[in-house]
User: Which sequence fits this backbone?
């Protein structure tokens, strides 16, 4: 009886292993929930590399398997509920009969704009009448029927693809320290009045073809000619991409002192957070390091939150995500320099400093509950304006598509031309004699800083995926140890990386080798 009793107890206590979803679904569920491998590993009491193994096909066992299955099932349930709630909310807004304002709000959400209902109506930036909604930080009517003077933003026709005659730069002087007038020169087109335009002509392809004909097919001469006219051509392309846009930006705003050069050949007070970091120590032994080159760093950085109008001053430790500009902060201490670069870059001097919107948003994100890598920065004062992340999006996509085609067709002329257009566009946004159509020093700093922030996130991704980060330099250079192809796609597209160099560091570990 004792033997049979033990067998009965064994059968009663036996149970099947908890089923798990396929490996690729496990990773998708974690990433869609915005949970890092390190966070999940800490909750389950395992290492991040173990999580990586489970997401690559290995299966856990025992008690930790039940915990992992519980997380995956909970993630699946939460994501399903959120998707259902979002779908129902959008259907309710879009399908309510006769309500054009609600439909306009849904359309604004689709375009990735910030739409808020105002507790107290404010003056519409177009007609001056009370408006109940705020789009990207500006009060306006969503229904054009309610807006007395709503008109589409005016844009000028693309300039001819040639060097423009020199013009006298407009005066930008303003009393030192005086707060700029709010919103002057900014026009916001109501959502319901968006223009529907035909596809833009291929200005880039036409310019390349015409220049090759002009130089009798001489590739080198045509490339030099195109690079020389890259700035006016970029401005013409920007104008064309802005047709039908919602905003008419201030092209020559008054600048606060922090954005003015301290001397003729000096710099202003803005810190761009350029990384120049190297890992202080490496494990013993010999290591193969791959230097990766990030493609189109400044091109990708054109997608960033840019202020539309003249910057306005504010004080206090508060960040409004609907606005963008520069901020005086006291940065937090960074305790991870042994394996990750500091988000504010390589800075020796302690104390407050002026940083850009991308740097501040990076610090706020890494200090949040998801990452918890540092304390939040302390904001002392800011110069900001209502902003949007999509201001240069059509311009960026047009350049990206032309770059992609040039790579596919092995067209080096177009490739060099496009590269010159976006790189010179960024470098001449400040006080430059080469671009008198657009003086936005704040934009120049923000775009550069966005490129640095993008590189930092690539370094963090490499670390999170189990690679050893060795160096991070400038906007496009990342050195790693490990199987980087499991983390990044290789190629020439802006979403890919390519090998810049492969080298060896350290010395062979001879600890276990015996004497002859």
Assistant:
């Amino acid at each position: 009886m004792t033997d049979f009793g033990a067998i009965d107890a064994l059968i009663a206590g036996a149970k099947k292993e908890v089923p798990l979803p396929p490996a690729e679904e496990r990773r998708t569920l974690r990433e869609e929930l915005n949970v890092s491998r390190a966070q999940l590993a800490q909750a389950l009491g395992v290492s991040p590399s173990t999580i990586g193994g489970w997401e690559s096909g290995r299966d856990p066992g025992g008690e930790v398997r039940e915990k992992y299955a519980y997380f995956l099932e909970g993630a699946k349930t939460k994501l399903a509920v959120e998707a259902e709630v979002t779908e129902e909310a959008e259907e309710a807004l879009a399908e309510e009969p006769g309500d054009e304002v609600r439909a306009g709000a849904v359309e604004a959400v689709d375009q990735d704009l910030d739409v808020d209902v105002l507790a107290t109506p404010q003056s519409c930036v177009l007609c001056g009448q009370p408006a109940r909604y705020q789009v990207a930080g500006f009060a306006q009517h969503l229904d054009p029927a309610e807006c007395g003077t709503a008109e589409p933003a005016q844009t000028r026709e693309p300039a001819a693809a040639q060097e423009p005659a020199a013009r006298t730069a407009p005066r930008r002087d303003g009393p030192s320290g005086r707060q700029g007038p709010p919103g002057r020169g900014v026009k916001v087109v109501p959502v319901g009045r968006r223009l529907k335009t035909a596809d833009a002509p291929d200005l880039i392809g036409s310019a390349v073809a015409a220049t090759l004909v002009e130089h009798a097919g001489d590739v080198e001469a045509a490339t030099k000619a195109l690079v020389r006219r890259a700035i006016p051509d970029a401005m013409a392309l920007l104008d064309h991409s802005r047709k039908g846009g919602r905003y008419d930006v201030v092209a020559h705003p008054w600048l606060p002192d922090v954005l003015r050069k301290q001397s003729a050949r000096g710099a202003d007070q803005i810190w761009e957070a350029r990384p120049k970091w190297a890992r202080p120590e490496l494990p013993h032994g010999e290591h193969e390091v791959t230097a990766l080159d990030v493609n189109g760093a400044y091109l990708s950085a054109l997608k960033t939150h840019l202020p539309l109008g003249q910057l306005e001053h504010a004080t206090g430790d508060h960040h409004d995500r609907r606005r963008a500009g520069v901020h005086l902060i006291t940065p937090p201490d960074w305790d991870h320099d042994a394996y990750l670069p500091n988000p504010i870059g390589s800075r020796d001097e302690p104390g407050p400093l002026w940083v850009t919107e991308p740097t501040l948003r990076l610090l706020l994100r890494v200090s949040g509950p998801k990452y918890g890598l540092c304390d939040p920065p302390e904001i002392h004062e800011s110069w900001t304006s209502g902003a949007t992340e999509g201001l240069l999006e059509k311009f960026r996509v047009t350049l990206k598509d032309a770059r992609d085609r040039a790579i596919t067709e092995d067209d080096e002329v177009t490739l060099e031309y496009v590269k010159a257009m976006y790189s010179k566009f960024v470098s001449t946004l400040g006080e430059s004699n080469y671009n008198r159509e657009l003086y936005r020093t704040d934009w120049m700093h923000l775009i550069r800083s966005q490129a640095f922030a993008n590189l930092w996130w690539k370094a963090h991704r490499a670390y999170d995926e189990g690679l050893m980060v060795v160096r991070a330099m400038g906007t496009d250079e990342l050195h790693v140890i490990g199987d980087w192809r499991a983390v990044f796609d290789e190629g020439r597209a802006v979403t890919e990386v390519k090998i810049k160099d492969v080298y060896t560091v350290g010395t062979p570990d001879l600890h276990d080798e015996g004497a002859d």
